[in-house]
Amino acid sequence: KKVDHIFVVSENIADWYTKVYNIPRPTVLLNAPPVAHVKKTNYFKDTFCLRDDQIIMLYQGGLAAGRGVDILLETFKKIKNDKIIVVFMGYGELEKKIKLASKSYNNIFFHKVVPSNELLNYTASADIGVALIENICLSYNFCMPNKLFEYAMANLPVVVSNVKEMSAFVKKHQMGITVMNNTVEDFSYVIDELLRMDFNILSQNSRKAALENSWEHQEAKMKIVYQNLLKNIKI
Asked: Is the Cβ–Cβ distance between 151 and 121 less than 8 Å?
């Protein structure tokens, strides 16, 4: 209550602060990248010697507990074919576990973390982006991670957990599919469903959502707040 204004990263977080602290509603700024013209590449297929017909699911970001990494690993360990493969790109406490699995399974791959200013060029070489969050607290239930918008900017359909904010966003923009429960069974079911969907339509919807919510739109909201605050400053 002692600050002049608050920025938050999702609508539900803004509603929560308003209700709990009885303050004016914070401004929502989505953690989205600037508009980028990203060209589709075969980087992952060339790097990992994959076939043209294989579908690449990408997890990028922190390789830590609570983000569905273990569920992804266990799911792909049980898949009997290599029609769809998973690439983990990032770093964290589960990195060694992923590298170990990649030596035993031909549908699991690890790629080291890349510079943030080059990230989307790598992202664009995948076919599907995955953002799994375990719904263990309000912060996770209301989260809108930057990877969701990075996938969208790179034209990728997405798979997300059944957390309130992300699943509503994906459903609204018809840009992917939600895993109802973070289990191997449910994720295996979602993979089968994805393979029956039209990737071109999902990709177009994903890109449209990225452009409509890009950093340029978020920055404009931020500037309005700053301008209004400056009007009240007495010099």
From this structure: no
